[in-house]
Specification:
By secondary structure, the chain is α/β, with parallel strands linked by helices. The chain is 51% helix and 8% strand. The chain folds into 3 domains: 157 residues, P-loop containing nucleotide triphosphate hydrolases (Rossmann fold), CATH 3.40.50; 80 residues, no CATH class; 48 residues. A 5-stranded parallel beta sheet has the order 2-3-4-1-5, sandwiched between helices.
């Protein structure tokens, strides 16, 4: 017999814990999509960057699904490739070339396969940072970016159809690459996009979220899509399970199972849950990321004032004893360095 809790859990639509692959559930990101397709129309390689869980993979998947329509090219072939599950560049080339109904595992083989296919190709590479950390991703990206620009010029100046377009994703910060990419940095979603996303998931259920609910979700998630999913999951439970403390349940989950590599929203440190084991948060739009327990680099109170004066006092003492300016200046500079190192250690320790 299925309990009411199990029925509510099964009916809860907010169970997405990865990239969104269902087109009807991808909403918003109009600015980002406009920028991506504007660059692709010009055959520029595009790099989408952002923190973990911000929606890079979902956006990339939607680009694949909608590229033929947005680029007004029915013959376009679009492929999504997750580099985090591939061992090396050869395996990546082989996978793409096989999808083009050809054989090979090199850059040259891909060029030949593209010419033989005589169709435009959009290549969307996800999690390229993993491949770069493994030592083979950088050369792959730069080789494909050169091919994209070269074939793009030929498609614009000749009747050639076999052109390559390229979009890649990676976590911020983006390393320096020798080949230029049009870089798009993804951040938190807007309140209007939050409303649309919530409505897309609630469609088909008999549950509704009020404007006040949306405001609380926005505050608790800071517009981070992955944390928004979690907060909405617990709010949905509260709508179907009387007495369910959804905010406490949300904070408990994000403290014990945070999004890997992502900082927690400020709302996770307030209210019903007061855990102290997590020390980072995901900032709201426009904020500067920092640790909540990190003190600013400043001198505090009378002790700080005394430490600031110590180098000057030491220099005056040396000058009075030696009657020479050079050693006094040396002592003063050394004192300043020691005070700065001490303050840095004091302010950054747990």
């Amino acid at each position: 017999m299925v309990s009411s809790v199990e029925r509510a859990y099964t009916a809860n639509p907010f169970t997405e814990r990865g990239r969104i692959t269902e087109p009807s559930r991808f909403t918003g990101r109009w600015r980002e999509l406009s920028l991506v397709f504007d660059r692709l129309e010009k055959y520029l390689p595009v790099l989408i960057a952002g923190p973990p869980g911000i929606g890079k993979s979902s956006l990339l998947t939607h680009v694949v699904q909608s590229a033929a329509v947005n680029l007004d090219d029915p013959g376009l072939r679009a492929f999504y490739v997750d580099l985090s599950v591939l061992p090396d560049a050869a395996a990546t080339y082989e996978l793409i070339i096989r999808a083009l109904s050809s054989r090979g595992n090199s850059h040259t083989a891909l060029e030949i396969a593209l010419l033989e296919a005589d169709q435009p190709l959009l290549l969307c590479l996800d999690n390229t940072g993993v491949a770069m950390e493994a030592g083979w991703g950088e050369h792959l990206l730069e080789s494909l970016a050169r091919m994209a620009r070269q074939t793009g010029r030929e498609c614009q100046t000749t009747a050639r159809n076999a052109c390559l377009r390229l979009v890649v994703t990676m976590r911020s910060p983006v390393p320096l690459l020798s080949e230029p990419f049009a870089t798009l940095n993804m951040g938190a979603i807007t309140p209007s996009e939050i409303r649309l996303l919530i409505d897309a998931y609630l469609d088909g259920t008999d549950v509704q979220f009020t404007s006040d609910d949306i405001g609380k979700l926005t505050t608790l998630s800071a517009g981070h899509p992955a944390y928004l999913q979690r907060a909405a999951f617990h709010l949905f439970n509260a709508k179907t399970q009387p007495g369910y403390n959804w905010q406490a349940a949300y904070r408990e989950e994000v403290h014990t199972q945070p999004v890997p590599g992502a900082m927690l929203p400020p709302g996770a440190f307030e209210g019903d849950y007061a855990g102290e084991s997590v020390t980072t948060y995901y900032p709201a739009a426009g904020d500067t990321p920092k640790r909540p327990d990190l003190k600013p680099y400043e001198l505090e109170g009378q002790g700080g004032l005394v430490r600031a004066l110590l180098p000057l006092l030491a220099a005056l003492l040396v000058f009075s004893l030696s009657r020479s300016l050079l050693p006094a200046v040396g002592v003063f500079i050394l004192g300043i360095v020691l005070v700065v190192l001490f303050e840095r250690h004091r302010n950054t320790r747990p």
